[in-house]
Amino acid sequence: SVVSRNGAGSSVGSGGAGGGIHVGAGSRANVISSTVNGNFATAGGGIYNAAGILEVVLSDLLFNRAGGSGGGGIYNGPGGPATVRSSNIAYNVASGSGGGVYNESSATLTEGTRVFRNTAGSTGGGVFTASTGTSDLDLMLVFDNEPNNIGGTGTVV
To answer: Could you give the C-alpha distances from 132 to 8, 41, 128, 150, in angstroms and in order?
Structure first.
């Protein structure tokens, strides 16, 4: 599947979150062998997880933009577990924190996932973990992100 060049403005029912995909509370989204490319939103330019269950496998999240907050590639909100396996999160931009990933809950990035060349206006160009979040980075790479690869005050294991 290809999800490309979509936008969630402030007038959208999701509150401008999830330019490509918005995972609602209590929902489940399996993004498998897909490309989420060139989308924009206030938060979660590529994907916004609002207390749902998100799984991304063998997919590319590229050139997405969060213009008012964080999570250029993925914004994982409170109560929403997210797992990313064997995927690329690259060339995303957030005006706030988390150019690649902004995590407020539980996120696992594993099995060859690569987070690279993302940019944040604040901190966590690659992965930002809020004080309420835990990010499990296992068997994956985070590199060449601006202003830094990993940021935030949450737990990173």
So the answer is: 25, 23, 11, 16
